[in-house]
Design brief:
The chain contains eight helices and eight strands, in the order H-H-E-E-H-E-E-H-E-E-E-E-H-H-H-H. By secondary structure, the protein is α+β, with helices and mostly antiparallel strands. The chain folds into three domains: 46 residues, no CATH class; 85 residues, 2-Layer Sandwich (Alpha-Beta Plaits), CATH 3.30.70.3270; 62 residues, no CATH class. The strands form three sheets. A three-stranded antiparallel β-sheet has the order 1-5-2. Strand 7 and strand 8 form a beta hairpin. 11% of the residues are buried. The structure holds iron/sulfur cluster (2 copies). One iron/sulfur cluster binds next to helix 4.
Length: 215
């Protein structure tokens, strides 16, 4: 952040006199103006206040600082081509850094909560997560950001949203060659919600006309 001088030193001394001399020879490093917040019982909260104070008064503005592997701050990256939005990682995260959404099929992330424990990376069945140690500064570190999201798919019969486009495409791709789904009507039924599939099977409707209207 551009604070001049040496802020940390390791002094090796055989006796107290040598140690004291070494202490007094140290040059004071540049510091920000005194902070006015109280310390919290929660160490990470106190560190958050410290980071914010240091960043706010920094001689050189920094958006992020790279950290070494194993550091307890950082981001995660999600490979969108692999991620199926199964949300296993959300259940595995002990710090509420990974979140889902009640309204949309979305995987969200709050970076400042992430302790880089790696549980999400180990849990992901698609091997889609990579950890990146770093200290992100500013508002973005504490706000939710979307790591992956999917297009919502609505039932072709009742129009109720019930799945993601990716799930339906995968299902059609996997079941399309199966002997039980060779008829257009059976394949078309896969695009319906559970209730409509049952109603459709019972009604045994003519799908020729429906297929024409929902292409
Ligand atoms: S990143 Fe992995 S565990 Fe998380 S939602 Fe995507 S596929 Fe599931
Ligand atoms: S590394 Fe740990 S804290 Fe960070 S998102 Fe994954 S499970 Fe949550």
């Amino acid at each position: 952040m551009g604070y001049a001088g040496q802020h940390f030193d390791l002094i090796g001394a055989e006796d107290v006199a040598v140690f004291e001399r070494a202490i007094w020879q140290l040059e004071p490093a540049q510091t920000p103006r005194p902070a006015t917040f109280n310390l919290s019982n929660e160490k990470r909260t106190t560190l958050d206040f410290c980071f914010d104070h240091l960043a706010k008064n920094a001689p050189q503005a920094r958006a992020e600082i790279a950290l070494s592997a194993g550091a307890p701050y950082g981001a995660i990256a999600v490979n969108k081509d692999r991620c199926t939005l199964c949300m296993s990682c959300v259940g595995a995260c002990p710090e509420n850094a990974l979140l889902d959404s009640k309204e949309f099929p979305q995987l969200r992330f709050v970076e400042r909560n992430c302790v880089q424990c790696g549980l999400c990376e180990n849990t992901c069945p698609e091997d889609a997560i990579t950890l990146t140690p770093r200290l992100l500064l500013g508002k973005e570190a504490k706000s939710e950001r979307v790591l992956n999201e999917a297009e919502i798919f609505a039932c072709v019969r009742c129009q109720k949203p019930f799945a993601t486009r990716q799930m339906i495409d995968n299902m059609l791709g996997k079941l399309g060659a199966h002997s039980m789904f060779t008829s257009p009507a059976a394949l078309h039924r896969l695009k319906m919600c559970a209730d409509c599939r049952v109603l459709d099977m019972m009604a045994n409707v003519d799908h020729g006309s429906i297929l024409e209207t929902t292409k």
